[in-house]
């Protein structure tokens, strides 16, 4: 707790109107958001790489973001860090009556259902929506892939879902054909809509196969980057450092070579 009090004191000093840091003084809730998202992704990256020394530092950076928001709110008389900590303590206690109370759940399905009921009650108590919806509580600021999956899961709770991945995959063929048709026109808005539908349909397939869309695309990103770097290394080893000097056919052949080497064939 001494370290926490020290951190809060540092934040207050940085924001001090007379002696604080000009950059920190200028910040608002909105201007800090990009840094918060960046720090959250850096936490995820450290975990994926198994770098626990970096994870400790990145968690500190993320905690600093929370302290920053809380300091601004304290200055405005809205709430402070103690209110934030107290609020999450109360919420976790309330949402876990099987741990902190006498409730009993016999399986994960009952536990998940009770959790969602508690969240719905909290939203209703805050008066967030005049007419409750299954879509309530899915943050608009989430990355699009994650949000698509969450929206689909919400719809699935009331039975609005494909019975299996095969049906969802058939839908992607339909969406692909619609994209292809729009590519023949000059209506970019409609083309973007159809491309969005195709991406959304693919998230459905991934979800129904029991996988995570964000992680699945992240793996594809990592694979592409790894293979592209291998292409660069191969060119450098051959004395050809500039990819732009090669034709697309030559680059494709190099890409195929890297793929075969990676697969061990």
Count of distinct strands = 0
Proportion of residues in extended strands: under 5%
The CATH architecture of the largest domain comes to Orthogonal Bundle
Q: What do we call the CATH topology of the largest domain?
A: Helix Hairpins
Number of domains: 3
Name the CATH class of the largest domain: Mainly Alpha
Alpha carbon gap, first and last residue: 56 Å
Shape: extended
| Quaternary structure annotation | single chain
Describe the secondary structure blueprint for this structure.
Layout: H1 2-15, H2 22-26, H3 29-49, H4 52-75, H5 81-95, H6 97-100, H7 108-126, H8 144-156, H9 165-182, H10 188-208, H11 213-237, H12 248-263
Helix pairs in contact: 1-4, 3-4, 8-10, 9-10, 11-12
Describe the protein's architecture and organization:
There is one protein chain. With about 260 residues, the chain is mostly helical. Helices cover about 75% and strands about 0% of the residues. It is built from 12 helices and no strands. Helix 3 (about 30-50) runs antiparallel to helix 4 (about 50-75) and helix 9 runs antiparallel to helix 10 (about 190-210). The longest helix has 25 residues, at about 215-235. The termini are far apart.
